[in-house]
Specification:
It is an enzyme of class 2 (transferase). GO terms for molecular function: ATP binding; phosphorelay sensor kinase activity. It comes from Pandoraea oxalativorans. InterPro entries: 2C_sensor_his_kinase, HATPase_C_sf, HATPase_dom, His_kinase_dom, HisK_dim/P_dom, Sig_transdc_His_kin-like_C. This protein has about 425 residues and is α+β, with helices and mostly antiparallel strands. Among the domains are: about 140 residues, no CATH class; about 150 residues, Heat Shock Protein 90. The chain has 12 helices and 10 strands. Strands 4-6-7-9-8 form a 5-stranded mixed beta sheet. It has a 3-stranded antiparallel beta sheet with strand order 3-5-10. β6 and β7 form a beta hairpin. The longest helix is centred in the middle third of the chain and has 85 residues. The two termini are about 70 Å apart. About 25% of the residues are buried. The N terminus and C terminus are likely disordered.
């Protein structure tokens, strides 16, 4: 006759715990009846155990049919489960000596569980019902029918010892499980708060970026007109011809700024899908216009047939990683692309001074002030965008020097297809 804890959110585990309790009750009845010389009213007691079995079967059916789609178990649900256990224990004690049964203190584990997981009002109600049941068992019960009444004290002491062991194991097991569940929940809440804070920062940055993009449109158009007029003047003016390469560079940089503004506007539109073999060379060509002095190499598998789902967002992440590499190592920047059935990996390597292990752990989690005057905002945005796509970015030391940044995106972000498809 063992009481048992109820896991609030795990119905399947509750089913197995109740199975153990039923086995313990049957074992106790069998030992008392066959070996200890206690003649118990088997018919009503086995009927109670059978009702527990039926209730447990219903619990299993409920878990199988509704655990995935049902809402989280409420306090009322847990209260009803504990009430059923209290009623079963009270009924079994009634037919086996009432308050004189050493197992009567098995009311306590149930109360300990209720106090730990239920609101104060529900726990106090269950405590009151336990007191009423215990008090009633002092006056109304079926006395134990012993073959040898002289063994009563010895049997009572043995039962108290078994009862103590069961109570200690049940309470200790439940408290440890509850503590572990609470720690896991607190960790999940902390991660959720970090994600919420990151998303709020991202939303604020997105709003600011949209506002800045809108404000920059007119000045860039004016600059493009002025540069165009200067190039027209340089065609017939020998004094301006020497500035023609500079004017061409200005036009390229203005075009890049307009392209960046266009990407901000495209973020509000539907994702742009394109074959990787077509998109990647065009993307890197445009990026090299931003850093013409950088020695850049692109390594792509010849049989790459992957299509990219959102070129704008992936391009934004790669641009940040490549910009950082070009800033620290203009003499050598490489981009390696590898595709597997599970993910696609972009690896950006540089030969710069590298970074400390402490800085690598901080970058991407929050904006970080660097010794070079940067704030780590670009990497913060890159890490957040990669996580939103279901991927991640890892920063490791490069060999022989520098930094190796790997962007891993799940194949859910991509899909395989023919290169000829667009």
């Amino acid at each position: 006759m063992t009481h048992f804890p109820i896991e609030r959110t795990n119905v399947v585990q509750l089913f197995w715990l109740r199975c153990l309790a039923i086995v313990g009750q049957l074992a106790t009845i069998g030992v008392a009846q066959l070996w200890l010389g206690v003649r118990l009213p088997l018919e009503p007691m086995l009927t109670i155990v059978a009702l527990e079995v039926l209730f447990n079967v219903l619990t299993w059916i409920r878990a199988r049919r509704g655990v995935e789609r049902a809402k989280r178990r409420t306090d009322l649900d847990l209260m009803s489960q504990l009430l059923v256990d209290l009623a079963a224990l009270t009924a079994l004690l009634f037919f086996s000596g009432g308050a004189t049964n050493p197992f009567v203190s098995l009311f306590l584990p149930g109360l300990a569980i209720a106090a730990a997981v239920l609101p104060w009002r529900n726990a106090s109600q269950l405590a009151l019902l336990s007191l009423v049941a215990y008090g009633a068992l002092n006056f109304q019960y079926v006395p134990l029918d012993l073959a040898d009444p002289g063994n009563l004290l010895r049997l009572h002491l043995a039962g108290m010892w078994v009862n103590f062991v069961v109570s200690v194991l049940v309470i200790a097991w439940f408290v440890s499980r509850m503590s572990r569940a609470l720690r896991a929940r607190d960790a999940q809440l902390a991660r959720a708060e970090q994600r919420l804070l990151r998303d709020e920062r991202m939303a604020a940055l997105g709003a600011q970026a949209a506002s800045v993009a809108h404000e920059l449109g007119t000045p860039l158009s004016t600059m493009a007109v002025v540069v165009g007029e200067l190039r027209s003047e340089s065609l017939g003016n020998d004094a301006l011809k020497s500035f023609e390469p500079d004017l061409q560079t200005l036009e390229q940089q203005i075009a890049l700024c307009k392209s960046a503004i266009g990407h901000v506007q495209m973020r509000a539109a539907a994702p742009v899908r394109q074959a990787m073999a077509e998109w990647l060379p065009a993307f890197t060509t445009q990026w090299r216009l931003r850093h013409p002095q950088v020695q850049f190499q692109l390594h792509v598998p010849p049989d790459l047939t992957t299509r990219i789902e959102d070129t704008v967002q992936v391009g934004q992440i790669l641009t940040i990683l490549l910009d950082n590499a070009a800033y620290f190592s203009p003499s050598s920047v490489t981009l390696d692309v590898a595709a597997t059935p599970d993910d696609v990996r972009f690896t950006v390597c540089d030969e710069g001074p590298g970074m400390t292990a402490e800085l690598r752990t901080r970058l991407g989690n929050s904006p970080v002030m660097s010794t070079h005057g940067g704030h780590g905002m670009g990497l913060y945005l890159a890490f957040a965008s990669a996580q939103r796509l279901g991927g991640d970015i890892t920063l490791t030391p490069n060999t022989p020097q520098g930094t190796r940044a790997e962007l891993r995106l799940p194949m859910a972000t991509f899909f395989f297809g023919s290169r000829s498809q667009t």
